[in-house]
């Protein structure tokens, strides 16, 4: 069996903290004890590890990451940014998939505490009060990535969802479209659902197209849900010439439905997405979309968490990164 730091301390008849000081700051330990510890380490062939150091210093150089759906391609770019920043700052990541399940999320917070993570990046949609209270109870520093919680003073990194949606719909209107519908996230259930709907509605009202505010159907995060929502939307609002989808995955589900009923994009309808996931430029037709800087959001969230852990505060509490419109093949002037 592999020796532990406790075995070394027992054999040398010293405390665990003394063993740690011999390994990390030997000049702080008197020679007699230092010699005993070194002899015990050699006799037991002890190899210190990160977890052992964590037991002593209450610091593991590990960060917990919570995401809602590891199958969603949006989170691939986010995690890549987190990973690169973590490597640069000498951290490792422990990634958990919450499936947007409240009890599972709370259990992960407890697990992170038991594993002695130094902090948490929370990228799992809305920060419910239960999550906030649990992390406060364990005194775990945490940062929000690609989400926000204005009711709490928690550091966050995301974009302006309302403005991004507004710019997407404005682009359709300025391309000549007047009959525009939307496939969005359920309002109140996700952090971006309401602001993206608000951006859609603001653009319509600005151009006097209020009639189409009701041409909205909601989908539960996945491609196949958007496919079904597109069927409902076009049954209820059959004269649409363009659709704003609240995610690229929703845009792909919408285009798939249109193909199955014999309509091509953008010849019959224009479709614009949101996120600019990697598949957006590989899909046929290539998606016009609002690009979120997912890599940068992930990268900055880890930098911000590192800043919070090491200094106890952050220079910018709520950080908004720039987005941009990417025009490709799924839209055309009407």
Automatic annotation (TrEMBL):
GO MF entry, a single one: transcription cis-regulatory region binding
Pfam family, one: LacI
InterPro entries from the UniProt entry: HTH_LacI (IPR000843), LacI/GalR-like_sensor (IPR046335), Lambda_DNA-bd_dom_sf (IPR010982), Peripla_BP_I (IPR028082)
Keyword Nucleus: no
Domain HTH lacI-type, first and last residues per copy: 3-57
Keyword line: DNA-binding, Transcription, Transcription regulation
Listed name of the protein: LacI family transcriptional regulator
Annotated organism of origin: Paenibacillus prosopidis
